[in-house]
Amino acid sequence: MGRKMIKSIASSTLSRSLPSANGLILDELEDDSVNLIKAEASLDYLCNLSPHRYEALYAKMLPESILGETFLEKYIDHSDAVTVIDEKRTYVVRAPAKHPIYENFRVKAFKALLTSSSSDEQLTALGELLYQCHYSYGACGLGSDGTDRLVRLVQEMQHGKPSSSEDGTLYGAKITGGGSGGTVCVIGRNCLRSSQQILEIQHRYKGGTGYLPFIFEGSSPGSGKFGYLRIRRPLSRT
């Protein structure tokens, strides 16, 4: 829905149909700006829209939510062959639209930080990106109580008095799991203290829920040990 609305706003800007309160007058736009808006009017994926463009032109114009019937009356469809809009249901718009835009930026920032020299500042920034990813995902309604609890426990461990008085070892966490959910990734220093804190989080979680989380650690040898499948396409017949 958000992508359809953003494309509609961009198209309206090009046709000079936006209200003057938006501060955009097509005649005053430079050629480069016009080209940008043209690209946004045919946007294929929200992640291809930069955060600063989203904030400058679209964020304030997207509703927090919209009734399915209202959306269909204005936009006809949402260009998604997999899902169907229920006219009687209210859909959140702004948070799910914002998530892929900022998530793409966070992923690129995370990748860039990994190439920088190891330091406390680097780990703090990496951890902050994980937290932002987690809460942005949750704002879309895709989180879970269990993973939220684990992330809170990591924060409590990170900012607790013992950790604050010593060199911190845990820096951030986020929900993950490759679509299967139920898993939290934690970033920290490779040291004994980090392992001890992870075990403490595990036991605190069990104390609060009755369930003992499983800890995945280390690195799998992957295809080097388990092998791989080679998929060949059949030769076309002529």
Automatic annotation (TrEMBL):
This protein's UniProt keywords: ATP-binding, Kinase, Nucleotide-binding, Transferase
Gene3D superfamilies: GHMP kinase, C-terminal domain
Entry GO MF terms: ATP binding; galactokinase activity; L-arabinokinase activity
Record-level GO cellular component terms: cytosol
Gene Ontology BP terms: galactose metabolic process
InterPro entries, per the entry: GHMP_kinase_C_sf
PANTHER family: L-ARABINOKINASE, MEVALONATE KINASE/GALACTOKINASE
The protein's name in its UniProt record: MEVALONATE KINASE/GALACTOKINASE
Species this chain originates from: Salix purpurea
